[in-house]
């Protein structure tokens, strides 16, 4: 299993945005923007059980998550990997993600899901 | 076939960036950042025959392309669709893309590919 280096993890630690690609029922890719972070070297984000992303990942855990420096899209990392899903009991995790990006607790109720990504392949782009 | 509206096409016309998700040999998603534009209502980008993206699309033309407002990532559109590939003879198309984003012709030689996307599903996000 490849490991993200500190420079790559910093992209996930900052208030950058990520695009997550998952697979629909027919195996075609779908994309959305998510808030991101990292835990113990793994990319992490939060979604809902109701959304396509959550449904897709329960069916097929393979995904790709790309995070770019919000001040410089010519600096990004894409991580292809496999999702590990955990229920976000009491929305604790989503509140923490919302605090990171907005300084406030999350404002919408919902049955949320923590997604942690075990990397299989790391693509590092830095056009300086 | 769903059609992109003018507001969505404007995201592709501006100097915004896109993330393209394609399928690897095993059907797992891969993501990269691309320059984008539109032609006759279809998203368009440019890649090389040598890169994974080009190889992936020749094998399986299904993709998702997401473009966000570079000043506001809470405004984006994701288009799931099918790629139509054309050889970029003389790099004419890539020069035009480079002119749009850098004001200069493209500087690297290479066997390039124009990718036009026929939309199957459009996801519009606008968190205002």
Question: Can you walk me through this structure?
Answer:
The structure is a homodimer of 128-residue chains. Chain A is built from three helices and seven strands; from the N terminus they run H-E-E-E-E-H-E-E-H-E. Chain A has 128 residues and is of the alpha+beta class. In chain A, strands 2-1-5-6-7-4-3 form a seven-stranded antiparallel beta sheet. The mean pLDDT of chain A is 96. The A-B interface holds A 17, 19, 21-24, 27-33, 62-66, 68, 70, 73-74, 76, 78, 80, 120-121, 123, 125 and B 17, 19, 21-24, 27-33, 62-66, 68, 70, 73-74, 76, 78, 80, 120-121, 123, 125.
Secondary structure category of chain A: alpha+beta
Number of domains of chain A: 1
Q: State the CATH topology of chain A.
A: Pnp Oxidase, Chain A
Rg of chain A computed from alpha carbons, rounded to a whole number of angstroms: 14 Å
Give the proportion of residues in helices of chain A.
10-25%
CATH top level assignment of chain A: Mainly Beta
- Sheet with the most strands of chain A? 7 strands, antiparallel
Q: Write out the strand line-up for the largest beta sheet of chain A, numbering strands in chain order.
A: 2-1-5-6-7-4-3
Q: How many strand elements of chain A?
A: 7
CATH homologous superfamily classification of chain A: Electron Transport, Fmn-binding Protein, Chain A
- In round numbers, the mean pLDDT of chain A is 96
Instruction: Give the oligomeric state.
Output: homodimer
Largest interface, with counts of residues having CB < 8 Å to the other chain, equals: A-B, 29 and 29 residues
Portion of residues in beta strands of chain A equals: over 45%
- The helix/strand series of chain A, from N terminus to C terminus, equals HEEEEHEEHE
């Amino acid at each position: 299993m490849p490991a993200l280096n500190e420079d790559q993890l910093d992209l996930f630690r900052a208030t950058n945005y990520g695009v997550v690609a998952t697979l629909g029922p027919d195996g075609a890719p779908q994309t959305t923007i998510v808030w991101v972070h990292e835990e113990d070297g793994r990319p992490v984000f939060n979604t809902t059980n109701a959304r396509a992303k959550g449904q897709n990942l329960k069916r097929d855990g393979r995904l790709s998550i790309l995070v770019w420096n919000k001040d410089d899209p010519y600096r990004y990392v894409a991580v292809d990997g496999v999702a590990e899903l955990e229920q976000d009991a009491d929305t604790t995790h989503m509140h923490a993600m919302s605090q990171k990006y907005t300084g406030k607790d999350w404002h919408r109720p919902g049955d949320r899901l923590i997604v942690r990504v075990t990397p299989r392949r790391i693509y590092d782009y830095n056009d300086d």
